[in-house]
Amino acid sequence: MDQDRQDAPSLEDAETLGEALRAARLASGRSMAQLSTMTRVHPRYLTALEQNEFSVLPSRIFSMGYVRAYAGALGLDELTAVERFKREFPDAAVPLQAPTGAALQQMRGTSPKVLAALGVLILAVVGWNVFQRVVRIEPPHPSDLVAVPKDWAKAADAEVDKALYLGAPRAAPPDQTTPALYITPGLEAQLTGVDPDDPNAVVAPAPPVQAAFNPRGPVYGAAAISSQVILQAKKPATLVVRQGDGRILFARQLAAGEAWRAPPNVSATVDVSDPAAFDVYLNGEHSGALPAPASPLGQLNARAQADARQSEARAAAAAEVQARARAAQAAAALAAAPAPVAPPPAAQAPPPAG
Predict the structure, then answer these.
(1) Pro residues: which segments have biased composition (predicted)?
(2) pTM
């Protein structure tokens, strides 16, 4: 390779870089296709280098790489070829310019004046604030309390020696209070079918009103509008709800006051650690505790639906009784009304005399 470089023509002797590369290629006896394979450069770019058509070449960085590779393949000095390429094809980038702005000497001359002005302004603001604070300070004045009674200390010592007694704790308020049913006098017999003045009348007992569900913590499970069964924990206990295929629908360690709403039309089993730790609410009313550690959810939903139908039947019966009472009252009022009096017949005029 060194012998080839000594026999190759010099880059400085040729007028242009392209002529030097072309003369070296002809002296080497290689074709353009062979040199393209050696340098991995397209023949079009090698031809552009020999013809000094630098505008055909890609970016400047790639062009210098092509010159280096082509010169090395022809046995020429690579650095010399690159330097001559830079001279014949200078970079068109804009050279750096001197920075513009205020001169350093000018800034040094004006800086003390600016700092002095800022210092004066700061001193003026601080002085004004101090002056305002001093003006607002009020002089000390004597207390309005002329003298302290001597018996105050004795009374305080006497209160300290007394014992403090607390009464017994009061019972907690009930969850729900239901007022007694009010019936208008005179309508009790029509609404209930029992005369209140008859001592031998037997009054049917009214269904007891159970305590309503009172949420005292988070409520999990189904929505309130779609659930009729609620399980509320009275103390910390475990609640696991398993579906018929064994999948877990709900599992959680419930704290006291937390509850779970059961979804309707779901075949599942309610498994609890302590049945007495859970209160069952059907349609919002208390229905006792869970019957067993494992209770079918379908039975609870069926009980809730049956209670709902009974409540609807009682409401319908009460509405029917009220309707009959109103009809009977209207009939009695119509019967007690006086009958209309017919007007007397008009007197006939005497026939005219013949």
Answers:
(1) 340-354
(2) 0.37
